[in-house]
Design a protein that fits this description.
Distance between the termini: 38 Å
CATH topology: Metallo-beta-lactamase, Chain A
Shape: globular
CATH class: Alpha Beta
Largest sheet: 6 strands, mixed
Helix content: 10-25%
Structural class: alpha+beta
Low-confidence stretches: none
Mean pLDDT: 96
């Protein structure tokens, strides 16, 4: 088993962080949240000599899941996640782009496997615990690698901010509860990549993120 590494490809007009996790030795990879620009994602995989094994989805918004069905078709690998509570969002992905005023060729999505709290997903011997963290979206999940003290956060917690809750299915208090009960207990030393912008560490956000005051 090699070292777990990560790279980011910003995709769609929303500049969403599509993350590629890969093993430095085997070159096996997982693509997390391919919201769009699938040709670019496939190009990067080829340039780096990576073999994608699975597609993981944190939640059902178009900028995170809009390209998943196309990437599944191109690669032949399964789509894993999110939680089934996001099924209504995934069922309308093909119509959301026009409603938002963007020309994004999104497809509706049915994952090969839904995820629940306590599930585990793996890239070779690299294992990630699944935490259901609703609030930004009802079925949002995060992926935590305990050995590496590393988390794929999606749109739950950002560097200096938190996920928006004014979209369908959003709930501000529920999001704060998810952060308090699921994210902060992971530990201040945990580094994370989020759905937009630069990553951070949980401890830094606990100390300086204005949205976390009082949690």
């Amino acid at each position: 088993m090699g070292q777990l590494q990560a790279g980011i490809i910003p995709v769609t007009p929303f500049q969403q962080n599509c993350t590629i996790l890969f093993d430095s030795e085997t070159k096996d990879a997982v693509v997390v949240d391919p919201g769009g620009d699938v040709a670019r994602i496939v190009e990067v995989l080829g340039e780096q000599g990576l073999t994608v094994r699975e597609i993981w989805i944190t939640h059902g918004h178009i900028d995170h899941a809009g390209g998943a069905d196309e990437l599944r078709e191109v690669t032949g690998v399964p789509v894993i996640g999110p939680h089934e509570a996001d099924k209504p969002l995934l069922d309308i992905l093909d119509t959301r782009a026009a409603a938002l005023g963007f020309d994004i060729p999104a497809r509706k999505l049915t994952p090969d496997r839904w995820l629940n709290e306590g599930d585990v997903v793996s890239l070779g011997e690299h294992t990630f615990e699944v935490f259901h963290c609703p609030g930004h979206a009802p079925g949002h999940v995060i992926f935590f690698n305990r050995d590496m003290r590393f988390c794929i956060m999606g749109d739950v917690l950002f560097n200096g901010s938190i996920g928006r809750t004014d979209l369908p299915g959003g709930n501000h208090q529920q999001l704060l509860d998810s952060i308090r009960d699921k994210v902060l207990p992971l530990g201040d030393d945990v580094g994370f990549l989020c759905g937009h912008g630069p990553g951070s560490r949980i401890g830094d956000e606990r100390r300086s993120n204005p949205f976390l005051r009082g949690l």
